[in-house]
Amino acid sequence: MGPHDAVTALLHYAAKRLLFLAPIALGVATVVFVLLRLVPGDPAQVLAGPEATPDVIAQLRVKFGLNQPVLIQYGFFLGRLLHGDLGLSYRSGLTVTQEIGHRYLATLILAASATALAVGVGVPLGLAAGTHRDSVRDRMAMLVALVGICAPSFWIGLVLQYWIAARFNLLPMIGGGGMAHLILPSVTLGLYSLASLARITRAAVVNTAQRDYVRTARSKGLGMPFIIRRHILRNALLPILTSIGLEFGFLMTGAVVVETVFAYPGIGVLLVQSILSRDYALVQGLVLFIALSYVLVNLLTDLLYALTDPRVSYQ
Amino acid sequence: MTARAEGPGAAASAWSRSRHRRRPWWLRDTRVAVGVLIVAGIASLAAMAPYLALRQPTQIDLQQTLERPGPAHPFGTDQLGRDLLSRVVFAGRTSLVVGVVSVATSLAIGVPLGLVSGYSGGRADLLAMRFVDVLQAFPGLLLAIAVIAILGPGILNMMLAIGVSASPLFARLLRASVLEVKGEEFVDAARATGGTDLRIMLRHVLPNALAPLIAQSTLRLGSAILTSASLSFLGLGVQPPQPEWGAMVSEARQYFVSAPHLIVFPGLAIILCVLGFNLLGEALSDRIDPRLANASENR
């Protein structure tokens, strides 16, 4: 297969995966639609919020077709969705898309920097542990990683706030804005993924290091750094990449807790606020948005395989 | 994470260890010992909490607020003068119940789904698995949060929410295991002797396919407790004044800079409890299926 064929195959695969994405996206939208109908009470009242006047409710009922049969409502819902119309947030009066729009980027930046930290530290840590299996270094690293996946992120966040912000005044305690506001939330959010990636990387490296081709490479007299780079790391990459993709999705929801601790202006804080104030239009939009981003990230991860691992077949 | 570093006699002990193969595996695995110690310790403290010489966890004493740990109050007191040690111990009761009920809910949904789906195959399987795909498109806390958004915050709704959101995992796991067992000879034998599908499914396939679920349930107990602490911290789970580790940390947030013990002790309790279940769960899953080792990170 020439390089041109490889590109075509990859594009075909991408197109196919996008088609698979459609039913999942439809399913997600359906679940969200059904969830809102499960809220006790009149859906128009629920969407309009607790303080709405009868006028507003009546308007909403006509606009969203809530006096129609459920199936037709479902059709309307999907139609509006395709136009990016998720309704109004009763608290702010802004459209749900606007509300999410100017906060989505903040969460994306937070999740991305947490991922960068988790990959940048977690993968080398796992590599160092796995290539020196059962050494003191390995055991220490894995003990720390084990505690890391048991510690709740809100607690890590508060401990960091106490030591770094309150006691030593090194970084701002709460709020959003510049780089300085990003550091503590990113560390807090990334720590679980860091620990988890270190464990997965170690397992993948240990597994690969037992293969025959690694033994062959060693018996040829190749140096360990070279073997790690060329033979072990490249072959251990697949499970590591999968987890990075999954972690990124989890970080988008993990952000709910971390943003609350640090009062960071992202969609996580918005989600909790909208639940506590029963702003269902906003809840619906946010849940839909986060789930779809997660599905999309998983698609991108799958596509990344193709670039890193020629063994994966895309038929 | 296996045994401790052995020191100078590592090679010799590896050899002698192989001679002691007949000792049961759970005696050779330090994770089991530590895990059992932690879990049994927390469980017995939780069970005996009302009979220990503790103060009432909800007893307010405004004369002694925010006291540092000392002889009268080993963990100190909180912003309302309640004894923190007592609250941490009683919160353990809540967390264990939440963990067990959540996992039971996951099993109650996931087991029938996975069993029928794996056993019958075909259209039912396809439909069930697409449903599971859709549920799994909601990452981490999101599905639980969405369920709570509908039902409203509270401990019962939280257990249901955590249970529902972890059920796809159990359904998938059981389905894979059922597919393996279905091909075994004893299943053919049961069918040849005239067993009905229902009987074969419940009496022959299910008992032999359950092993991976046991390890996973133990792991999920830890993560259900972690999730419930997070949800309670957000105000979506257990509500004050009922003591719960996450809710306690949330209540103490305004005061923690001057009284850090308010968050230190509940946090350590969560870590210890989750660590115990994780150690046990990992040892079990390594034992039952080494291929699954490290594949199932808990969320």
Q: State the CATH architecture of the domain at 96-277 in chain A.
A: Orthogonal Bundle
Largest interface: A-B, 54 and 51 residues
Amino-to-carboxy terminus distance of chain B: 19 Å
Query: Structural class of the helices, strands and pairings of chain A?
Result: mainly alpha
Shape of chain A: flat
Query: Can you tell me the CATH class of the domain at 96-277 in chain A?
Result: Mainly Alpha
- Helices and strands of chain B, in order, run as HHHHHHHHHHHH
Low-confidence segments of chain B, given as residue ranges, are: 1-13, 292-299
Number of helices of chain B: 12
Mean pLDDT of chain A: 84
The average pLDDT score of chain B comes to 85
Largest sheet of chain A: none
- The CATH superfamily of the domain at 96-277 in chain A is MetI-like
Distance between the termini of chain A: 14 Å
Any chance you could write out the topology, listing elements then pairs?
The complex is a heterodimer of chains A (315) and B (299).
Chain A: H1 3-38, H2 43-48, H3 54-63, H4 70-82, H5 96-131, H6 136-150, H7 153-167, H8 179-209, H9 212-219, H10 224-262, H11 267-276, H12 280-308
Chain B: H1 10-19, H2 25-28, H3 30-48, H4 84-120, H5 122-136, H6 142-151, H7 155-182, H8 185-192, H9 197-209, H10 211-233, H11 245-251, H12 261-288
